[in-house]
Amino acid sequence: MAQHFQQQLLDELPEAVAIVGTGDYHKIVDVMQRVEKGDRVSLVSSEPTYIADETTPRYRTTSEGVAYLRIAEGCDYRCAFCIIPHLRGNQRSRTIESIVAEAKQLASEGVKEIILISQITTNYGKDIYGEPKLAELLRALGEVDVPWIRMHYAYPTGLTPQVVAAIRETHNVLPYLDLPLQHSHPEILRAMNRPFQAGINDAIVDRLKASIPGAVMRTTFIVGFPGETDEHAAHLLEFVKERQPTACQINYQQKKWKFGEMQSWRHNNLYH
After folding, report:
1. What pTM, to 2 d.p., does this model score?
2. Model pLDDT, residue 115
3. What is the mean pLDDT of residues 257-270?
4. If phi over 0 gives left and psi between -120 and 50 gives alpha, with beta otherwise, what is residue 130?
5. At what angle do helices 134-141 and 96-108 cross, to 10 degrees?
6. Residue 84: is its pLDDT beyond 90?
7. How far is C-alpha 20 from the chain's CA centre?
8. Given its phi and psi angles, is residue 232 left (phi above 0), alpha (psi -120 to 50 degrees) or beta?
9. Is residue 162 classed exposed, middle or buried when 0-12, 13-18 and 19+ CB atoms within 10 A define those classes?
10. What is the pLDDT of residue 259?
């Protein structure tokens, strides 16, 4: 809310002494010092660029044996239903060396399971290496003395044979995939601004089952998306019955939009 509604929050919450954006939290000490002097601070970068690394102090709120490890921040995709790029900016990845260094720190603290997170984990490294480097990252993390590496938020088109092979062959990478497919019907995926996914959903699931027997696949779907018909919903239901993901989360879009209305609303309300 601070990133998007900063001025509105300041106007409506006179008791608020500071508003800090998603790309500015590393400046929180300076903000607090200014507040102590009596200033009312609004520090919100219009284009977030910051990403914490292994040198950034952190306080873990997870259980002792589990830790999240952010490998990238932001997203270059513009899915019609998602506000993340506006709030967090474009993708910016950490180097493999930086991520491995933090993983080693976490292992030395007794962490047994590291969960890799970003907005789209399978796009990791594209911004700094010129191409995705998730396979190389997973193999590098295989050298870290931690029993389990779990990967969240994969994008279907990024599950290349190289990535699948790295998951299968790296001893501490769990055969677990958090793979938000969102829908199965090409028309709805096109409306979601994910058209390139339509032709590969079936192939990706089949490849995973063949390459990594026993792999766990968790996915999410959006139903009630603007313009979705009974035919579209039936297509999705049949896809789930045939592909049988291990776990499935359904998100219901309650507002009755028409095709194109959501994109128009996003343009008018988020990017001006």
Report:
1. 0.83
2. 97
3. 48
4. left
5. 30
6. no
7. 21
8. alpha
9. middle
10. 47
